[in-house]
Amino acid sequence: MKIDNGQLAAFAAVLQEGSFEAAARRLHVTPSAISQRMRQLEERLGQVLLQRGSPCQPTAAGRTLARYTEQLALLEAETLAELGDADGNGLRGTSGMPLRVPLAVNADSLDSWFPASFDALPAEPAMVFDLRVEDQDHSATLLREGVVMAAVSASAEPVQGCTVEPLGIMRYLAVASPLLIAQAFAKGVNAASLSRTPMLAFNRKDALQARFIALLIGPDAEQPMPPIHYVPSTAGFVAFAQRGLGWGMMPEPFVREPLAHGTLAEFAPRRHLDVPLYWHRWRLRSPALDAVTRAVRQAASLSLRSLGARAPMRPSRAGKER
Q1: Which of 12, 46, 122, 259 is most enclosed, with most CB atoms within 10 A?
Q2: pTM, entire model
Q3: Tens digits of per-residue pLDDT, 20-39?
Q4: Which helix or strand (DSSP H or E) is residue 259 part of?
C-alpha cells in the first residue's frame, strides 16, 4: 500500500502545529485541504489517526504513523543532501527549511550542561530544534511514538528501536541558606528537624528530597512530612533557597557560584545523590542524529561526572528526575 506524501505531510503538520488551521498556514493551503487530506489518509488506512481537539492528538494508530513520518522526513532530507541539492541548501527538507530535530531533555540538564551541546554542532547540516522538557517515563513514550528523535533520560532501559549510551552522573547537593541552616539544624540534621524545616520540590513528581531524607535517616524509618514549596523553575529553586524559604536538592553546576559566595551552604556535607544520565536515540543511520549525538556526548563529558565502573543507581518508579 502506497501512502500519499501530501497526506503524510498534512498529518505531520497537524501533529506538530496542533490544529488544522495552523497546519494549513504552515503548508500554505486551506484548512479544508488539510481536512480533505486527513480524511483520505484515514480512509486509505482504515483507521482514525487523530483525536480532533485543542490541540489535536494522535490515536494509537496515529502514534505509529507519527514515528514513520518523522523518520521518513529525516531520511528524505539526508538523501536529498547526499544526492546534491540543486538550490545549494545543504541538508534541508523539500520545503527548503532546515531539518527539524525534536529532542526530549529533563529540566535540570536543559538549564545546566545541555545548551553547550549546540556549541559543538557543525554549520551543516542546517537544523532547528524542538526541545521537550519531560521526565524519564514520558521521554521514553515520546521516543516510542516518534514525537522525538532522541532524549536525555535517567533510565538505562533501551526503548524499542533505539540505542542507549551513558552520558555521566548529575550530582545533587542538599543546600539551603546559611541562616536557615543555623536556625533549623542547630541541634543536628535528624527526622525531627527535617519534619519542621520547609522543603523545596520542583513538582509533585520530584522525589529527590524524599530520597535524600531516606539516605540521612534510613530507608526503613518513618519519613517526616515537612512543609513543601513547589517551585517548577530551576532559577526559582535557587532563588527560593537563597532567601531562606526552604532546602532542596540542586545539581552541582547550579550551586557552585552560590556556595562560593556564601549565599547557599550544604547542611549535610559529604552526603549527596548521584543520578546517572543516558542518551537515547533512534537506531537509524543519520548524519544529523550522529552530529547531535557527538555534540551531546562532548558537552556531557565536560560537565557531568564520569560513570566509571560505578553501577547505575536507578531512581525508583516514583523518583523521576527533574
Answers
A1: 12
A2: 0.74
A3: 999 999 899 999 999 999 99
A4: helix 252-261
- Tell me which fold the domain 98-322 belongs to: D-Maltodextrin-Binding Protein; domain 2 (3.40.190)
C-alpha cell at 75: 531520511
- Which class for 225: exposed (0-12), middle (13-18), buried (19 or more C-beta within 10 A)? exposed
At a CB cut-off of 8 Å and minimum separation 6, what does 186 contact?
Answer: none
What does the DSSP 8-state code read for residue 137? H
1.10.3660.10, 1.10.10.10, 3.40.50.1000, 3.40.190.290: which CATH number matches 1-96? 1.10.10.10
Residues 63, 67, 69, CA angle at the centre, nearest 5°? 110
Is 163 exposed, middle or buried (CB count within 10 Å of its CB: 0-12, 13-18, 19+)? Answer: middle
Which of 257, 256, 261, 206 is CA-nearest to residue 230?
Answer: 206
Asked whether the CA dihedral 187, 248, 241, 296 is positive or negative, the reply is positive
How many Cα neighbours within 13 Å face the side chain of 226? 23
pLDDT in tens, 200-211: 999 888 889 999
pLDDT of residue 188: 94
β-pairing, 150-153 vs 272-282, is: antiparallel
* Nearest CA among 216, 272, 263 for reference residue 241: 263
> What does the alpha-carbon distance between residue 8 and residue 1 come to, in Å, rounded to a whole number?
14
